[in-house]
Design a protein that fits this description.
Blueprint lengths: L2 E5 L3 H12 L3 E6 L10 E4 L1 H9 L10 E2 L2 E5 L6 E6 L3 H6 L4 E4 H13 L9 E4 L3 E5 L4 E4 L4 E3 L2 E4 L6 H7 L13 E8 H5 L14 E7 L4 E8 L4 E8 L15 E2 L1 H7 L5 H7 L5 E5 L10 E2 L2 E3 L14 H16 L5 H25 L11 H4 L12 H8 L4 H12 L22
Parallel strand pairs: 1-2, 1-12, 2-8, 5-14, 12-20
Antiparallel strand pairs: 3-7, 4-7, 5-6, 9-10, 10-11, 13-16, 13-18, 14-15, 15-16, 17-18, 19-20
Helix pairs in contact: 1-4, 1-9, 9-10, 9-13, 10-13
Protein name: FAD-binding domain-containing protein
Pfam families: FAD_binding_3 (PF01494), NAD_binding_8 (PF13450)
Family: Belongs to the paxM FAD-dependent monooxygenase family.
Length: 439
């Protein structure tokens, strides 16, 4: 049994904790917040993540996830239908599993429950809340808390997010942000469906809204609005993406920065008046800069490994940031099953790096533009992907992102590392859904 310290109880950190618990290790998570007032907007749980979360026993209905039925492009000025991006069967056809929309708090709570519940395989994860980590030592490995206490472990995982201290320890430098190719700013806000239903001028937005994602882009002005439902279709999640001349690469992202709803209305003032009346129902909105960070050259040093935003911060254009962090966590547990000596742990981190870094780097680069503009970044993808596999259109991007089975690839890599490798029988609660063959 390996003693593991994970820094950060976000989505990637908790998924790592679940996977390492199921792999037979003792896991402790150090989180700087008290997790008493969790907030957040909605998040995609696409097939590449859903396939193993469901196999672990996560019930999307129990946690109020919404199954995607369709994704359509609408004209932002007339609200007229322009084209279908996905239909109800698209995610299953491409990825083998469903695409789900979840409130971030619901997903986070589900993961925390899976990590800490007293029943189930492995030893329940121990959570240390209100404990800020201020330093790492990869060679020990250990972390230093704000009060000066040093905590040692056999393996330390940095899941400390966008402004990661762990990544600086791994790299020896800070991965500084640069201006993105397209939009550089984002609004997020939520509107209860009931609020819209109470007004005759806004209830139209609820019509047939179940599992419907609506994209309203105006590429000439680098603006787009994205809307879909979460929490059993009772909440509409809105994302407004745009270019702001006042945003610079040296700004710090703050997901909790409030902005007046009137500013959102001003930014999209020429969009359809009926839609503006819907937006006006929001009680509050958040704004933060979208800053791009290029892929980093390595994800581990000695016995310190990186997961999630600490390894690959992503822009929201593909809706894959959370899913890639979930893949990281899953793979970390698989490669560490059976780990013993310090040398063995470090060698397995090298396997993890090889499995995850190229794939996540491709998604990171594609997320700088979105699935409909993949050709813009084709050259940037070549260090991480063979030229004949570089996606160039939305369907190819979906095949690359949705149509991936991290369980299969991680298990095969570990069999190459150790021919006797086998996952515990109770690592999964049910069969992992595979990926359909591309026709």
């Amino acid at each position: 049994m390996v003693q593991v310290v994970i820094v950060g109880a976000g989505i990637a950190g908790l998924c790592s904790a679940i996977s390492l618990r199921r792999a037979g290790h003792q896991v402790e998570v150090y989180e700087s917040s008290w997790m008493k007032n969790e907030v957040g907007a909605a998040i995609n749980v696409p097939p590449n993540a859903a396939r193993f979360l469901m196999a672990w026993g996560l019930d999307p209905v129990e946690w109020s996830f919404v199954r995607s039925r369709r994704m359509t492009l609408l004209d932002p000025f007339s609200l007229q239908f322009k084209m279908a991006i996905t239909e109800e069967e698209t995610a299953r056809r491409v990825g083998g599993a469903e695409l789900w929309y979840a409130h971030r708090v619901d997903l986070h709570t589900a993961l925390r429950n899976m990590a800490t519940r007293p029943d189930g395989p492995g030893t329940p994860v121990v959570m240390h809340l209100g404990m800020r980590v201020v330093g790492y030592d990869a060679s020990t490995p250990s972390v230093t808390l704000k009060d000066g206490q040093q905590v040692r472990a056999d393996l330390v995982i940095g899941a400390d997010g966008l402004h990661s201290t762990a990544s600086q320890e791994v790299l020896g430098y800070s991965n500084r942000p640069v201006a993105p190719i397209e939009a550089n700013c984002c609004y997020r806000f939520l509107i209860p469906a009931e609020t819209l239903q109470q007004d005759a001028e806004t209830r139209f937005w609820n019509d047939d809204c179940q599992g419907w994602a609506r994209l309203l882009p105006h590429n000439d002005s680098k603006r787009r609005l994205v809307a879909y439902t979460c929490r059993n279709d009772t909440i509409h999640n809105f994302v407004g993406i745009f270019y702001d001349d006042n945003v610079h690469a040296d700004m710090r992202e703050d997901w909790q920065a409030n902005i007046a709803v009137s500013d959102v209305l001003d930014r999209f003032s020429d969009y359809n008046p009926r839609l503006l009346k819907v937006i006006a129902k929001a009680k509050e909105a958040k704004k933060w800069p979208l800053l791009y960070r290029p892929p980093i050259p390595i994800w581990y040093r000695s016995r310190l490994g990186l997961v999630g935003d600490a390894a690959h911060p992503m822009l929201p254009h593909l809706g894959q940031g959370g899913a890639q962090g979930l893949e990281d966590g899953l793979v970390m547990g698989i490669v560490m099953h059976g780990a013993s000596s310090p040398q063995d742990i470090e060698e397995r981190l090298a396997v993890y790096d090889k499995l995850r870094r190229n794939r996540a780097s491709v998604v990171q680069i594609l997320s700088n533009v979105g699935m409909d503009q993949a050709k813009q970044v084709a050259q940037q993808l070549l260090p991480y992907l063979d030229s004949d596999k570089v996606p160039s259109d939305p369907l190819q991007v979906m095949r690359f992102t949705y149509g991936y089975n991290a369980v299969h690839d991680a298990t095969q890599a570990m069999k190459e590392y150790d021919a006797a490798f086998e996952l515990p029988q109770d690592f999964f609660q049910s069969e992992v859904v595979g990926v359909p063959s591309a026709d």
